[in-house]
Structures are given as C-alpha cells and as structure tokens.
Design goal:
Blueprint lengths: L29 E3 L2 E3 L5 E2 L2 H5 L10 E3 L2 E3 L1 E13 L3 E7 L4 E7 L7 H6 L5 E11 L2 E11 L4 H19 L22 H6 L10
C-alpha cells in the first residue's frame, strides 16, 4: 500500500507534475529472490481488466486502455491458498473476477510468518507482474499485504476509475478559479425589492 501521498503520483494515483499519463513513468528496478522486476509504472486495476487485457505478440506487454501494462496492483479476497512444489498459489477475487497469484517459495515474500497472515478469507493488496501461462493469466507477486483498513477497498476502486478515465479521455481540465460569492438581490432587508414589498404600517394621528 502507498506510504506517502506522492508514492504513486499523488493520493489515489492522482497525476503528479512529472507524470504525463498513467503507464508512462518507469518505476525503479527492484529485485525479489534474484529476479529483476521489469521497469514499469504501478497501475491500479480490477481483475476483470487484467483478464480482458490483450496481447498482440506473445511475450510482449499486455495492453489495457490501449497502454502497455506489466506491473499492476489489485485488491481482493483470498478464496483459496495452496502450496505447490515451487510456489504458493492464491486465488484472489475482487468482485469483478478471479485470478491466480503466485509467490515463489525462494522469494523473501514467502517467509513462513508472513505467509501465515495470507490465509483464506483475508483481503490483500497484491502488487506484481501480469503473466500468461497456457492462455491463463496470473500475477507473479512481489508484494502481498493484508488489508487492515477497509477504506483501502473504496480507495482502490476510485483509483481504478481515475486511471481508466485518465488513460481513455486524456488529462483532466484544470479547476476553475474561485468566484466571489454574491448574494441574490432582494435577499436582505436593505434591498430595494424588500423596501417595495414591505407592508406599510398605518401612521397614528398627532396627539
């Protein structure tokens, strides 16, 4: 999960001055378990978007909203957790679809104490690379964190919408400058309309 408002270009992946569009700013290269993580921008997605991602040429980057996508972030519920000979496998569902998330046993992420937290029925934020094996998409995770604040679910959904609109409709227009507030005419007693409508009281004759 983001640790600062500017980690992903602003709170909720709001564009920072150095980012021109979602998907064009490379993230720093990292290593997990001896493997280089591809340089790419971290983009929030739903599982349905990942399952519908297209790939024009095998082994090239997938495309979502017309842009290359490799490193993604999803948030969902662990439905199933199993251990294979080389990796942990999790089925994660976010309400839009279900996808396999894999963690290599040799990876530092596969620490037994950490894995004990990643059990069925737990919401997790997953960050990793989108892959395809035998026409089945999966995520090779290099970060998998249990969700402790459920506001993250709403926050992630809004971030996905923001990224989708930004990539499909372009930059958002700048906000309009603030305008001075002017009360409608006739709202206050000293206005001319109030004086015209105010009932006239009878004047008592002089004593």
């Amino acid at each position: 999960a983001p640790t600062s408002p500017n980690e992903y270009g602003g709170a909720g992946w709001v564009r920072s001055p150095t980012q021109q569009q979602f998907g064009d700013t490379p993230a720093p290269a990292q290593r997990r378990g001896g493997r280089d993580i591809e340089n790419s921008t971290l983009v929030p997605r739903t599982i349905k978007q990942l399952l519908n991602a297209t790939q024009t040429v095998p082994d090239e980057a997938f495309k979502i909203d017309g842009r290359d996508v490799t490193t993604v972030s999803i948030l969902g519920l662990i439905l199933e957790a199993t251990v294979e000979s080389t990796h942990y496998n999790y089925k994660v569902d976010d309400g839009t679809g279900c996808i396999d998330v894999r963690v290599w046993i040799s990876d530092s992420l596969a620490d037994p104490a950490r894995q004990a937290q990643l059990r069925e029925g737990v919401y997790v934020r997953v960050t990793g690379n989108l892959r395809s094996f035998m026409d089945q998409k999966n995520i090779m995770a290099w970060q998998m964190v249990p969700v402790t604040d459920f506001n993250e679910i709403t926050w992630h959904g809004l971030s996905v919408i923001h990224a989708h609109l930004y990539n499909t409709r372009g930059p958002f227009p700048p906000p309009l400058p603030p305008q001075p507030l002017r009360p409608p005419r006739g709202l206050f007693p000293h206005s001319s309309l109030h004086r015209r409508l105010r009932p006239r009281l009878p004047v008592a004759p002089p004593l």
